[in-house]
Structures are given as structure tokens and as C-alpha cells.
Specification:
The chain is of the alpha+beta class. The chain contains 5 helices and 5 strands; from the N terminus they run αααβαβαβββ. This is PDZ domain-containing protein.
Length: 213
């Protein structure tokens, strides 16, 4: 199957991007420390002579390396975006095939025979509005069961609509240390999860990134 290979490649690319970001942050921190030369700008003093308080060849080398890292970061990010589009398309295709099979195999006499079926049909029929494209190990999102590639159909009271990023942030903040119900699609199947936004050693209350679809 293509999707598992693409997902594995995407995970490696995300690890690679994380390494690039760490190296860039380290270079920027060195160049912008108090008295440092900065990431751009001249390396001469007020009289036009090379600054004697810094290692100019080393600074130039670090600036070149930073430019290379930024180009690599852009390329890796573009590859990740393309892979996520492939994964999203594959999952939508599986959803459509699953819906078609259910329509073909369900006879009129069976409609309404199970109270759980309408709920499942309703969840699957709603298109997701976001996908988890980054998640940190040990984060609340990871510990509570979210996975890379999960598609979000409902997050608390948030469903598809306008200003989704702002609404998601507001929903998480207003429910800090409280349970939030989610409806997700994972590998073509609808699932219910509960997550608790909370402070941890990383950024935010969840430790994941929602990519709007």
C-alpha cells in the first residue's frame, strides 16, 4: 500500500525538519547574543575597519550555514505538505468506498434496525476540517491517543466553519484541565476520543499542530 510508505516517509521528514530547526535556532542564538554580529548586517566598526571583537570568518561561515538550513527547511516542508495531501486524498477515497459499500449492502428493510448506525453514518459523512500534521511525544495530545494523520471532524464544540484556528485555540484554553470530546477519522474509520488540554513541559496545552483542510 502507498499510504503506509508515505506516512513513514512523512514521519522521517518531520524528524529531519526538527533537526534543521534545532540547528537553525542554535546558530541564531549564537549570532544574536549580546554583542554578537547578528544574522545580517555589516562586520566593520564605525571607522570602516573589520571588527576585531569577533571571528569574522566564523561568523560568515555560520551565516552561510543558516542560509543553507533555511533552504533545506523549505524543501523538507514542501515535501511534507505534498505527502500530507496524498495521505488526505487516500483517506477520503477510502471513506467514499466505505460509504459506497454500505449503501450497496444495506437493504431498505434493515434501515433503522440499529440505533448506533445513524450516529456512525453521521460522523463519517461529515468531512474533517483539520489534520494532525505534527505531534510531540509525551504531549497531552499524544498521551491521550491522538496520532499523526488523524483527521478532526469535531473538537469539543468546534466543527467545520470560519476562523477555525481561533476557535480551536479558544476551545482548548476554555477547557484547560477538562475533558474535551473529539470525533476523528483514522485510516478511514470514525472514532471518538477524549483529550484533556493541560500544561506540560512543551508549548501550548496540546502539543500538536492542526493543519486546516
Amino acid at each position: 500500500m502507498v499510504a503506509p510508505d508515505v506516512k513513514a516517509e512523512t514521519m522521517k521528514l518531520m524528524d529531519q525538519r526538527g533537526g534543521l530547526e534545532a540547528e537553525m535556532d542554535a546558530i541564531i542564538a549564537r549570532l544574536t547574543e549580546p554583542g554578537g554580529p547578528g544574522i545580517t548586517g555589516g562586520l566593520v566598526d564605525a571607522e570602516g575597519f573589520p571588527r576585531s571583537d569577533i571571528d569574522i570568518p566564523n561568523v560568515l561561515a555560520q551565516r552561510r550555514r543558516l542560509a543553507e538550513l533555511r533552504n533545506d527547511h523549505k524543501d523538507v516542508t514542501n515535501k511534507i505538505d505534498k505527502n500530507l495531501e496524498i495521505l488526505h486524498s487516500a483517506k477520503l477515497s477510502r471513506n467514499e468506498q466505505s460509504t459506497s459499500r454500505r449503501s450497496d449492502t444495506t437493504s431498505p428493510s434493515h434501515i433503522g434496525s440499529s440505533q448506533s448506525e445513524p450516529m456512525e453514518e453521521d460522523h463519517v459523512s461529515k468531512l474533517p476540517f483539520a489534520m494532525i500534521d505534527e505531534i510531540t511525544d509525551g504531549s497531552p495530545a499524544s498521551v491521550d491517543g491522538l496520532q499523526l494523520g488523524d483527521e478532526i471532524v469535531k473538537f469539543g464544540n468546534v466543527e467545520a466553519g470560519d476562523q477555525l484556528q481561533e476557535r480551536l485555540v479558544s476551545e482548548a484554553l476554555s477547557n484547560e484541565d477538562s475533558h474535551v470530546s473529539l470525533v476523528i477519522i483514522r485510516q478511514g474509520s470514525a472514532m471518538n476520543l477524549t483529550i484533556t488540554p493541560r500544561k506540560w513541559h512543551g508549548r501550548g496545552l496540546l502539543g500538536c499542530h492542526f493543519r486546516m483542510l
